[in-house]
Known about the structure:
This protein is an alpha+beta fold. The protein has helices spanning about 25-30, 85-100, 105-120, 120-125, 130-145, 150-165, 175-185; strands spanning about 1-5, 35-45, 50-55, 70-80. Strands 1-2-3-4 form a 4-stranded antiparallel β-sheet, with no helix packed on it.
Amino acid sequence: MDLGKFVTHIGGETIETVKNWNYSHAFFYTYAIPFQDTGARLNYNWSDTLYTEIYVVNGWNVTHDNNSGRTWGPSVGWTKNYPELGAAYSLKEGFYGIYEGSGSPQAAIAAYEAWNKAVVPEVRDAYSDLIRAWTKWQPWILGYFDHPVTNAYTESLNSLIRVMNRLGRGYSFEALRAKILFTEGGVISVSVQKLPPSAW
């Protein structure tokens, strides 16, 4: 169960690039899905083929709700009729487990090796880019376990800035900066200097 502000589960892409099929975001991500939700969500895997989820959130990209309505919805996944899809889903969840269940680089390596052995030939092609990326960038990927910081918040802000800039054609940099700082709760320090009457 998750409570608070979390990366949205709605849509084909998320802020956290490690959870996407492609590393770079598509236009679909910027225009058609939320970036984050605030509220509660509960998910449960009943078996390897059945999972459920229910969520109640304030709405798209809204921390403090601006109305009395709530966005809610259930989700049910059944993969028994499509065994390859079920295998791909289990592998995706297993890969997340490397990040969520490993406390050190050594544990992450062991978890990855176990995950890699579990990739069945029927879906190995779908994970070839991920396996190649892990192999090529392993030292930097493992740095996460020494310093568990991601760029998810920065990616979210960059996407919001692009949307604001598109909606407000002609914004100056200063206006755009102020808008994003006020929207996302940033603090702007303003110094006031009293001018002598001769300057009026």
